[in-house]
C-alpha cells in the first residue's frame, strides 16, 4: 500500500507502471481504469473530479478543483493537495507536502467539512500523515470518546431449543420439537447486547479503515475493535443506516454518524456506488476557500459587520409582454457576492476566487479572468450604487509564491477602485496592509 501525492490540475497518465515522471504521475493500467469509473458514475457529479482526454497519444486524467484522497482497488491511495504551493509531484519536498496538508486540514476543520468537535483539536503532527490517515484518526478519536461514555446496548429476542428454562416457553414450538425430548425446552428470551445497527456500522467502518491505513493508525483501530468484539459487521449498510436511532440515550453517537456517512454513503461526491474499494473522501476546494475566508476575516476585522452570500440585489428588471408570465416582480439574474462588509461608514463588496494569479505578469493581466472583472462591476452597479466615493471592491485570491502582495489598484471609469488582495492561508488572514482603505 502506497500513497501517491499530487496537486490540483496534475496530470495522471495511463502507463505500464505507476511512478512519478517529471510534473505528472503515471498510473498502471488497472489503476487508471479504476479512476475512469468515477467519470462514468451517474450517482453524483463525478465528472467534475477529472477531465479525461489524450495527450501525446496517451490517455490522461487531469485533476480538477477537488482535494482529498481516493482509495484504489489495489490498496494504493492518491491524495490530491491544494495547488497554492504546488511543486513537481516528484520533486516536492516532504515539508512542502506537509505544509499543504496542514493548511487543508486547518481549512476543513474551520469550515466544518470535517465532522465532529474532535477535529478542532487535531494535532499538527497529522500533517505528516497521509490524508486518509488524518481523516481516519479524527474518526477514531470520536469513537474513543463514545467508548468512554459507554457503548449502547439493546435487548434482542432469541428463540432456541435449550436444556434449561429461561424467559418463556413457546408452547406450539415445544409440542412440535420436544414431544419426545422431554429434557429440552423451546424458549424465547431477551438478551442485552451491543449488537445493534449503530455499533455494526462502527465496526464495519473500523474494519474498512484497518485495511487502508498505516501501521500506527492500524494499531488504534485494533484497540477500538476490542470494544466491539461481540458486534457483527454490517451485512446491509443502507438498512443499518436507516435503522440508526436518535434520542437522548444515543446523543453521544451523533458525532459518529457523519463519519459513517462519509465512509459508506455518497455524502461527498466521492464514492462509487456499489464499489467500496473505490471509496474516496474529496472536497470542492473552491467552496472550502469561499467558506474559509469569511471566517478568518471576521476575526481579523472585528469592528466590521461582515455578511456572506447576500442575495438582496438583481442585475436587471424585465417586464414580459404577457404580464401573467412575470415572475419575481420582474427581477432577473440575482447577484450573490461572497462578502458584504460594512466598514465604518463605507460598504465594501468582496469576492473570493480559488485561482492562482501571478504578480509578475502585468502584460497578461496577471492571469485575472475578464469574467471576474465584469462580475465585480455588476456588484458595484447594484450593491454600491448609492455609496459615496471612493467606492472599493475586494477581489481575494490565495497567496502563492507568485502572488505575495496586493496588486496596484485597478480603477474603473466610474471611479470604482478594485483591490486585488492575497489571502495568506498560513496565517489565516489577508496579507499585511492588504486591506488598507
Structure report:
It is a single chain. The chain has 437 residues and is an alpha+beta fold. It has three domains: 3-150 and 197-285, no CATH class; 154-193, no CATH class; 301-430, Trna Endonuclease, Chain: A, domain 1. Helices cover 29% and strands 25% of the residues. The chain contains ten helices and 21 strands. The chain has helices at 29-40, 94-110, 131-149, 171-178, 197-210, 215-225, 237-242, 257-264, 285-300, 370-383, and strands at 3-7, 11-15, 19-21, 24-28, 50-55, 58-63, 66-71, 77-81, 154-162, 168-169, 185-193, 280-284, 305-308, 313-317, 331-335, 339-343, 346-352, 392-398, 410-411, 417-424, 429-430. Strands 13, 16, 17, 18, 19, 20 and 21 form a seven-stranded mixed β-sheet that branches. A five-stranded mixed β-sheet has the order 3-4-2-6-5, covered by helices on one side. A four-stranded mixed β-sheet has the order 1-8-7-12. Helix 3 packs parallel to helix 6 (215-225), helix 5 (197-210) packs antiparallel against helix 6 (215-225) and helix 5 crosses helix 8 (257-264). The protein is elongated and about 100 Å long. The model is unreliable at 266-276 (pLDDT under 50).
Amino acid at each position: 500500500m502506497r500513497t501517491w501525492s499530487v496537486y490540483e490540475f496534475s496530470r495522471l497518465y495511463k502507463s505500464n507502471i505507476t511512478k512519478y515522471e517529471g510534473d505528472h504521475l503515471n498510473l498502471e493500467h488497472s489503476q487508471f481504469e479504476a479512476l475512469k469509473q468515477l467519470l462514468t458514475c451517474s450517482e453524483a457529479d463525478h465528472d467534475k473530479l477529472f477531465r479525461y482526454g489524450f495527450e501525446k497519444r496517451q490517455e490522461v486524467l487531469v485533476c480538477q478543483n477537488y482535494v482529498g484522497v481516493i482509495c484504489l482497488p489495489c490498496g494504493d491511495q492518491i491524495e490530491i493537495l491544494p495547488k497554492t504551493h504546488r511543486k513537481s509531484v516528484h520533486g516536492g519536498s516532504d515539508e512542502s507536502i506537509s505544509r499543504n496538508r496542514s493548511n487543508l486540514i486547518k481549512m476543513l476543520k474551520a469550515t466544518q467539512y470535517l465532522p465532529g468537535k474532535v477535529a478542532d483539536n487535531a494535532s499538527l503532527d497529522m500533517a505528516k500523515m497521509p490524508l486518509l490517515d488524518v481523516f481516519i484518526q479524527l474518526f477514531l478519536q470520536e469513537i474513543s470518546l463514545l467508548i468512554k461514555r459507554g457503548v449502547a446496548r439493546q435487548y434482542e429476542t432469541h428463540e432456541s431449543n435449550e436444556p434449561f428454562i429461561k424467559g418463556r416457553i413457546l408452547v406450539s414450538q415445544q409440542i412440535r420439537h420436544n414431544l419426545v425430548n422431554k429434557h429440552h425446552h423451546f424458549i424465547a428470551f431477551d438478551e442485552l447486547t451491543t449488537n445493534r445497527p449503530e455499533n455494526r456500522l462502527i465496526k464495519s467502518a473500523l474494519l474498512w479503515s484497518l485495511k487502508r491505513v498505516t501501521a500506527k493508525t492500524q494499531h488504534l483501530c485494533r484497540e477500538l475493535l476490542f470494544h466491539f468484539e461481540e458486534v457483527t459487521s454490517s451485512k446491509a449498510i443502507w438498512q443499518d443506516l436507516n435503522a440508526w436511532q436518535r434520542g437522548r440515550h444515543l446523543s453521544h453517537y451523533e458525532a459518529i454518524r457523519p463519519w459513517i456517512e462519509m465512509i459508506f454513503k455518497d455524502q461527498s461526491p466521492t464514492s462509487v456506488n456499489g464499489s467500496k474499494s473505490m471509496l474516496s473522501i474529496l472536497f470542492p476546494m473552491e467552496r472550502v476557500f469561499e467558506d474559509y475566508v469569511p471566517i478568518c476575516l471576521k476575526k481579523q476585522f472585528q469592528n466590521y459587520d461582515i455578511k456572506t452570500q447576500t442575495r438582496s440585489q438583481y442585475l436587471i428588471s424585465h417586464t414580459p409582454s404577457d404580464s401573467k408570465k412575470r415572475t419575481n416582480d420582474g427581477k432577473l439574474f440575482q447577484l450573490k457576492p461572497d462578502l458584504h462588509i460594512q466598514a465604518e461608514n463605507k460598504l465594501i463588496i468582496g469576492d473570493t476566487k480559488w485561482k492562482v494569479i501571478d504578480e509578475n505578469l502585468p502584460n497578461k493581466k496577471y492571469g485575472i479572468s475578464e469574467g471576474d472583472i465584469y462580475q465585480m462591476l455588476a456588484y458595484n452597479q447594484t450593491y454600491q450604487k448609492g455609496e459615496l466615493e471612493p467606492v472599493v471592491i475586494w477581489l481575494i485570491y490565495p497567496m502563492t509564491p507568485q502572488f505575495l502582495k496586493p496588486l496596484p489598484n485597478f480603477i474603473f471609469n466610474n471611479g470604482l477602485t478594485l483591490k486585488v488582495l492575497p489571502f495568506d492561508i498560513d496565517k489565516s488572514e489577508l496579507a499585511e496592509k492588504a486591506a488598507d482603505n
